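FORM 7B: Structural annotation worksheet

SECTION A. Query
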Amino acid sequence: MILYEYPFNERIRTYLRLQQLFNRLGLLMARTEAVDHHFALTTLFEIIEVASRSELKSDVLKDLDRQKQLYNGYRGNPVISEKALDGLIAQLDEHFEALNQVSGKIGQGLNDNDFLMALRSRAVIPGGTCEFDLPAYHAWQHHSAASRAQDLSQWVTPFGPLAQAVKLLLKMLRESGSSQKVMATAGQLQQNLPQGRTFQLLRLKIDPSLGITPEISCNRLLVVIRMMQQQADGKLLASTDDVPFEMSLCA
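SECTION B. Predicted structure
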């Protein structure tokens, strides 16, 4: 099944972008080729760009605290394990404290690294990181894989508390939804959302053998999904078939 996720607000959109970038960064850093480490650095620059939002740290801290208050409200519920509850709240406290101890904007110290900033300014130019433009970077790419990995680890470390906090928040958000099997009749589904609940994330699972791509539009009142079929020339055309899929709404 192919999973598609659609955020209902800008805050969750930012979290999803960060998680995708952190996952990619982890994969690239684990490899040993210089070209993989090059793209690890360009991914790091994307993370710096996303993390530069002034309200990001505050948003994450507020969400961690909100989740802690929510789960504290479950204390005394006989159907909920106190041990599991204590463990989850301890995780929230741990990530809150780690992120709260980060002073200023996350990763702002990297702005003082001349090597990285020179590379960042050239990386946006097609072919801008050639050896005649950045000889120091060219030399760095010829360091041993272990040496490059050590440098990457050092540069990425300031973003660790943010990465772990976002991972936990998205995990808890995803687990708040329950999956249901639905049908897009004649390739479309339009569903009114129940009032009194604020949904933050829509998740779809579609069988890849159907060759279908969803176009999703959501707001606090309505979900609209159109199923599209890719043609041989790459164009997407609206499907008129009944398309089964799984959907969950996460609050």
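SECTION C. Observations
The chain has a mean pLDDT of 94. Strands lie at 2-7, 180-184, 188-192, 201-206, 212-218, 222-230, 236-238, 243-250.

SECTION D. Sign-off
Analyst initials: ____
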